[in-house]
Amino acid sequence: MTGATPGGDIPGLAIIRIDDPLDFRVAPFRDVRERDLAGREGGFIAEGEVVLNVLARSRLHRARSLLIADKRLEKLAPLIAAFGEDVAVYAAGQTLMDAIAGFHIHRGVLAHGERSAPIAAGDLLASAAPEALVVVLFGIANHDNIGGVFRNAAAFGAAGVLMDPTCCDPLYRKAIRVSVGAALSLPFARLAPDEDAIALLQSHGFTPLALSPAGRTPLKSLVRPQKPAVLIGAEGPGLPPDILARADTISIPMAGAFDSLNVATTSGIVLHHLA
């Protein structure tokens, strides 16, 4: 390690300057893409000013440290200060920051975050308000879709998101970015492999509404139940047959030969209708 010195030129902020990409203090930010794919053992990487604003206010997850490009320090001083003194703030030139991350960080803003303890699906449902709306996902393996669904769920006031074990990680960096930080502010839980989603929802007073091109009820005719649960499956396979057989099935009528929409688009339309 060489040349890392505390202090900085932003009044009121303790900035630690980094000039060696191998400095152990910025190890969590090294080779971001590869390590994200391998898993971060309770941590995550958040990217961009908008997302970090959400993280600074999140009551679910917290930042461990920040890595900021020198050129962004002055403008981001209020945001940096919002994280508090217990969050280490590292600064580096753009070229060095890119070398640490392993690719060009054009936003110049990264945070290493700590996940909150996992929530049981039943606990999330039990804590929901009397007229809450939840989203339940099955087999969503695309991070763009996960991020888009979380963004829509937050925008339309969902109380949380449940996912089956095959869904991808909503705290993967790209999913967080696509969600515009909603994945950091919206509670989520994973169903256990042997957990009966329909029975669990009904035991907490939720009405399962399963989206399917062959759904019996057109969306425009759907009257909002007191506690709706919107069930969405992966593009192509859709929802599992046993889920469709035990839930109210809802369709979105379309023109011509089209019979399905992108998962995130579907969630937006349905959540808007219910909200």
Order of helices and strands: EEHEHEHEHEEHEHEHHEHEEEHEH
Oligomer: single chain
Summed up, the helix count is 11
CATH hierarchy class name of the largest domain: Alpha Beta
CATH topology of the largest domain: Alpha/beta knot
- On the 0-100 scale, what is the average pLDDT? 92
List segments where confidence is low: pLDDT < 50 over at least 5 consecutive residues. 1-7
Amino-to-carboxy terminus distance: 54 Å
CATH homology-level superfamily of the largest domain? SPOUT methyltransferase, trefoil knot domain
Describe the structure.
- The chain has 275 residues and is an alpha/beta fold.
- The protein folds into 2 domains: 110 residues, 60s Ribosomal Protein L30, Chain: A; 156 residues, 3-Layer(aba) Sandwich (Alpha/beta knot).
- 31% of the residues lie in helices and 21% in strands.
- The chain contains 11 helices and 14 strands.
- The strands form 2 sheets. An 8-stranded parallel β-sheet has the order 7-10-9-8-13-11-14-12. Strands 1-2-5-4-6-3 form a 6-stranded mixed β-sheet.
- Helix 3 links the parallel strand 4 and strand 5.
- Helix 6 runs parallel beside helix 11.
- The longest helix is centred in the middle third of the chain and has 13 residues.
- It is elongated, with a radius of gyration of 21 Å.
What labels would you give this structure?
275 residues, 60s Ribosomal Protein L30, Chain: A, Alpha/beta knot, 2 domains, eight-stranded parallel β-sheet, six-stranded mixed β-sheet, elongated, disordered N terminus
Short description:
By secondary structure, the chain is of the alpha/beta class. It has two domains: 5-114, 60s Ribosomal Protein L30, Chain: A (2-Layer Sandwich); 119-274, SPOUT methyltransferase, trefoil knot domain (Alpha/beta knot).
